[in-house]
Amino acid sequence: MLQGSNSRTVWRHSVLRACVALESLGYNADALLDEFDLSLNQLFEPGLRVSTDAFNLMLAQCQVETGHDDFGILAGQSVPITNSALGIAVRASASALDGINRFKKFAPVIESGTVFSIKQHDDTHIVSIRGWNSQWNPAMQDALVSSLCLATDYLTPENCKPRYVKLIQPEPTNTATWHACLSETIEWEAQEVEVAWESKALLHPRLLADESTALLNDALMEPQLQQVLRASLHHRVESQISQHLQAGNTTPDLVASDLNMGTRTLQRLLKEDGTSFKEILKLLRQEHAKNLLDTREPIAQVASRLGYDDPGTFSKSFKAWFGLSPSDYIENKKNPTKT
Length: 339
Known about the structure:
Layout: E1 9-11, H1 12-24, H2 29-35, H3 40-43, E2 49-51, H4 52-66, H5 71-77, H6 85-91, H7 96-110, E3 115-121, E4 124-130, H8 139-155, E5 164-166, H9 176-181, E6 186-187, E7 193-198, H10 199-203, H11 211-246, H12 252-258, H13 263-272, H14 277-294, H15 299-305, H16 311-322, H17 326-334
Parallel strand pairs: 5-6
Antiparallel strand pairs: 1-2, 3-4, 4-7, 5-7
Helix pairs in contact: 1-5, 5-8, 6-7, 6-11, 7-8, 7-11, 11-12, 11-14, 12-13, 15-16
């Protein structure tokens, strides 16, 4: 299954990692690819992208076929068959933090809906990874987090492991592979995926760094990044607006920062796609407003969660959208036969 229009996609290297892991366990990768209308020859074509939903199904099938719940971890730890420009740039980075920042910038190339953010708290740097679909197999998280940890292990002094890892998934029956490859400390069923390292280890200068090589490969990655961003922009903006609405507010500046671009660039690209930040925000507010009111959440609280300082302003907007006030909407839900 190759990419479809407006669908989320993964780059070919993620699929190749899964194939390496499958072959290392004694199974036939060609047979698996054939079930998804793919071949190894296709996976060697530069620029090829595969539907994320198809890749999710592929990982789930590999788990079942091999009996390895930890297959995602094994895929992330697999040595790619081919070198990617991103892999070369990361390994040539001046520090582990520079390498992680490259993961952050080019995350949409790895998976078009994924967003990295990095923050420092005291002596710890924390990488948050967002954009997960709740219906995906946990192996999706495992594969990306595992590959990030593998790359960072290579870049840090004495292969410094993360201080802790947070995963959304429930705790597996046997966690040995997760602890061996990720961290001794793992929080399961967390609110979001996080990986935390000692800041000193990430900032340590690397003797094997080659900044010119890193920058050259950054330049090779840039066209892929721009292509993916344009193809998935609307979805990514929706996703980030929804994230910020849950915290109570959102602005073009916040979303542009999340997407690693300037506010003017974001607004220009949305205009070229025939929409605007304001229009996407309005449509999401409409959707979330009904959903929240359906859960019997108080109107004032709904207004606050959608970024309105005044419940009255929210009520006016709601009536303009749907032709009735929030309180009337709730009453109609309680008594659907009442006119």
